C-alpha cells in the first residue's frame, strides 16, 4: 500500500472510494449533500454512509465517516475513522482510496496525516500466513491511498512517521500471532539478529552455555524443562553520550507459558503463545526507532524461555540464584515472568541507564483491574511514570498507574530466600511489580503489565483485529521522542 499526498479537490479526482472524514455538523459539498436525506448522516462519531457517484462526482463511490464533535476529535479519532474507511474499501475491493477531512478540529496537519496512515495500515492488517484455501476476498489489497491536504510538507512528514511506527507495530503483531512451535526463544533471537542487520544495530544473542557461564539463574530455571533452549538477547541502538538519554527497554519473551509444574487449566492455555508480547514490543520499538533515527541510546534486552513441565523442571519450593546474586524462592512455577525479568533488569545496570522500562504479559489480575482498556503502570520514579502517562495519552495506548508502596515491597520477601515469586491473590499485579523493583537498584524503573492489552479477543478499536495488538510500540516511540 503506497501513500500519496494530494492538494486538489477530491470530488474531481478519480478513485474507487473517496472517504470523507466529517466533523459533526460540518457542511458537505452540495454535490454530496443533495444525494441523501440530512437525517441519514450528521457526522456523529462512527456513523458511516456510502454514496455512489452516478457521474456527478469523479470517485466511483464516496464513503462518509463521522468524526463526532470537532472539539473532541483527537488523533485516535482519525486513526479509528481511517481504519473503518479502509475496511469498507477492502469489502468493496477498491484499489485506489482517498481520504479527506471536512470541518474544524484541534488536530494539526502532520498529526492528522500520521493518524490516517496508521489507521489505514492497521485497519488493513490481516494475519493469513497459515491459511491455504484463501478466497480472493481475503487477499485483496488496497494499492494506493491518497490523503488530501493543504500542507504537503507536514502531511508527508506525518505519513512517513506513521509508516515507520507501523513497521514496528506490524513486526510485533506478526511475531505474537505465530504459534509457539515456530516462535521459540531461538527464533526470537534470530529476529533480533535480522533486525540488527537490517538497521546496523548491534545485536547479541546468548545461548544456554553462555547463560550458565554468566549466571543467568532465573532464565535457566524457567527454561530448564523445555526442548527449546532459552536465550538472552541484547540490542544496542545508538551509543552513550552527554546529550542523549540511555533507556533500557526490557521485554518478557516467554515463547509459551504452560505454567510449568503448576500447570495452567486447558481452557486458556492456547492463548499463552502471546506470552512473548513484551519481547515483540521491544523488537517493534527498535524497528520504529531505527527507521525514525531518533537521537537516543536505546538498549533492548529480551529474556526468552519456554515455560514447560518435565522431569527436570523447576519445582515449587526450589530456590534459584538470579544473575544479581539474590535468591528467589519459587512458590509457583506459573509466576515465571518475574523470574526471567529479574535477570534482565539486573543486566540493565551495566549501561547506567537513565531509566529501565519493561513490558510484560505478567499477570491475569491486571485484566480484572483494568479490563482491556489500559496497560498497568508501576514505577519507582514519579517523573518517569508521568512521562509514560503522557506518552500513553498521546498515542492512545493508555496506561493507568498503581501504587508501589513499601508495604507491597515487603510482601515479596521470602522466609528462607531473599524474595519469593508468588504472594497469593491480593494485589497480584502490584506484588509482581514489587518483585521486579527489587532488582532495579536505584535506577528509575517502570513496569508495564500488558497481559490484558497485548491480545484482543474481541477488538475494541476499529484498527484492532482478533489477535495481537502490537501494544506499546506507539507509546514507546512517543515516550522516546518526548524524552528530556
Ligand atoms: N503469562 C501469565 C499472565 C497472563 C495471563 C498473560 C493472561 C496473558 C493473559 C503469567 O505468567 C502468569 O501465569 N501469571 C500468574 C501469576 C500467579 C501464578 C502469581 C497469574 O496471573 O495467574
Ligand atoms: Mn505464567
Ligand atoms: Zn507468563
Question: What is this structure, in a nutshell?
Answer:
This protein has 484 residues and is α/β, with parallel strands linked by helices. It is built from 16 helices and 19 strands. The chain is elongated.
Total count of strands: 19
What CATH first level of the largest domain would be assigned? Alpha Beta
**Which cofactor or ligand species appear?**
ligand BES, manganese (II) ion, zinc ion
**What is the tally of helical segments?**
16
**Terminal Cα span:** 35 Å
Instruction: Assign the structural class, choosing from mainly alpha, mainly beta, alpha/beta, alpha+beta, or little secondary structure.
Output: alpha/beta
Our estimate of the beta-strand percent is 15-25%
Instruction: Provide the spatial order of strands within the biggest beta sheet.
Output: 7-8-10-9-13-17-14-15
CATH superfamily heading of the largest domain: Zn peptidases
Regions with pLDDT < 50 over 5+ consecutive residues?
none
Whole-angstrom Rg: 24 Å
Average residue-wise pLDDT: 97
Number of spatially distinct domains? 2
> What is the name of the CATH architecture of the largest domain?
3-Layer(aba) Sandwich
What level of helicity do the residues show? Answer: 25-40%
What does this structure look like?
- The chain has 484 residues and is α/β, with parallel strands linked by helices.
- The protein has two domains: 2-149, Leucine Aminopeptidase, subunit E, domain 1 (3-Layer(aba) Sandwich); 166-482, Zn peptidases (Aminopeptidase), CATH 3.40.630.10.
- Helix content is 36%, strand content 21%.
- It has 16 helices and 19 strands.
- It has helices at residues 30-33, 75-92, 109-123, 136-139, 152-177, 185-199, 208-214, 217-223, 266-269, 277-292, 337-348, 365-370, 382-395, 406-411, 428-437, 473-482, and strands at residues 2-6, 17-23, 48-52, 61-68, 96-102, 144-148, 202-206, 231-237, 246-257, 297-307, 319-321, 327-329, 355-360, 375-379, 399-402, 419-420, 445-449, 455-456, 467-468.
- The strands form four sheets. The protein has an eight-stranded mixed β-sheet with strand order 7-8-10-9-13-17-14-15, sandwiched between helices.
- Helix 3 packs parallel to helix 5.
- It is elongated and about 80 Å long.
- 53% of the residues are buried.
- The mean pLDDT is 97.
- The structure holds ligand BES, manganese (II) ion (MN) and zinc ion (ZN).
- Zinc ion is lined by residues 254, 257, 275, 336-337.
- The site of zinc ion (ZN) has 5 residues, from strand 9.
Amino acid at each position: 500500500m503506497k501513500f500519496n499526498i494530494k492538494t486538489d479537490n477530491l470530488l474531481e479526482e478519480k478513485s474507487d472510494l473517496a472517504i470523507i472524514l466529517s466533523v459533526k455538523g460540518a457542511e458537505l459539498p452540495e454535490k454530496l449533500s443533495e444525494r441523501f436525506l440530512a437525517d441519514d448522516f450528521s457526522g456523529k462519531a462512527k456513523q458511516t454512509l456510502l454514496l455512489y457517484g452516478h457521474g456527478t462526482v469523479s470517485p466511483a463511490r464516496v464513503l462518509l465517516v463521522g468524526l463526532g464533535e470537532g472539539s473532541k476529535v483527537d488523533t485516535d479519532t482519525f486513526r479509528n475513522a481511517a481504519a473503518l474507511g479502509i475496511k469498507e474499501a477492502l469489502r468493496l475491493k477498491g484499489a485506489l482510496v482517498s481520504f479527506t477531512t471536512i470541518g474544524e478540529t484541534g488536530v494539526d496537519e502532520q498529526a492528522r496525516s500520521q493518524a490516517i496512515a496508521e489507521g489505514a495500515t492497521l485497519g488493513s492488517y490481516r494475519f493469513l500466513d497459515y491459511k491455504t484455501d484463501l478466497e480472493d476476498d481475503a487477499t485483496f489489497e488496497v494499492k494506493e491511498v491518497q490523503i488530501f491536504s493543504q500542507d504537503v510538507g507536514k502531511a508527508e512528514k506525518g505519513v512517513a512517521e506513521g509508516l515507520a511506527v507501523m513497521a514496528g507495530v506490524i513486526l510485533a503483531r506478526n511475531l505474537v500471532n505465530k504459534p509457539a512451535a515456530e516462535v521459540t526463544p531461538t527464533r526470537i533471537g534470530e529476529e533480533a539478529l535480522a533486525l540488527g542487520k537490517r538497521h546496523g544495530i548491534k545485536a547479541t544473542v546468548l545461548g544456554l552455555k553462555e547463560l550458565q557461564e554468566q549466571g543467568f539463574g532465573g532464565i535457566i530455571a524457567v527454561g530448564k524443562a523445555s526442548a527449546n533452549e532459552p536465550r538472552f538477547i541484547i540490542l544496542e541502538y545508538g551509543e552513550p553520550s552527554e546529550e542523549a538519554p540511555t533507556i533500557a527497554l526490557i521485554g518478557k519473551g516467554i515463547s509459551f507459558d504452560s505454567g510449568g509444574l503448576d500447570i495452567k487449566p486447558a481452557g486458556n492455555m492456547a492463548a499463552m503463545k502471546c506470552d512473548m508480547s513484551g519481547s515483540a514490543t521491544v523488537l517493534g520499538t527498535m524497528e520504529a526507532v531505527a527507521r525514525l533515527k531518533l537521537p537516543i541510546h536505546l538498549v533492548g534486552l529480551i529474556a526468552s524461555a519456554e515455560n514447560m513441565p518435565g522431569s527436570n523442571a523447576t519445582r515449587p519450593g526450589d530456590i534459584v540464584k538470579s544473575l544479581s546474586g539474590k535468591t528467589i524462592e519459587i512458590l509457583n512455577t506459573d509466576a515465571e515472568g518475574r523470574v526471567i525479568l529479574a535477570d534482565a533488569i539486573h543486566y540493565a545496570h551495566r549501561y547506567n541507564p537513565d531509566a529501565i522500562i519493561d513490558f510484560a504479559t505478567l499477570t491475569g489480575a491486571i485484566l480484572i483491574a483494568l479490563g482491556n482498556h489500559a496497560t498497568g503502570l508501576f514505577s519507582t520514579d514519579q517523573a518517569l511514570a508521568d512521562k509514560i502517562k503522557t506518552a500513553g495519552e498521546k498515542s492512545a495506548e493508555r496506561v493507568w498507574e498503581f501504587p508501589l508502596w513499601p508495604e507491597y515491597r515487603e510482601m515479596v520477601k521470602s522466609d528462607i530466600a531473599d524474595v519469593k515469586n508468588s504472594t497469593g491473590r491480593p494485589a497480584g499485579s502490584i506484588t509482581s511489580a514489587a518483585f521486579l523493583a527489587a532488582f532495579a537498584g536505584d535506577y528509575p524503573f517502570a513496569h508495564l503489565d500488558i497481559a490484558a492489552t497485548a491480545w484482543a479477543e474481541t477488538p475494541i478499536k476499529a484498527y484492532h483485529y482478533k489477535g495481537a495488538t502490537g501494544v506499546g510500540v506507539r507509546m514507546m516511540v512517543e515516550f522516546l521522542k518526548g524524552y528530556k
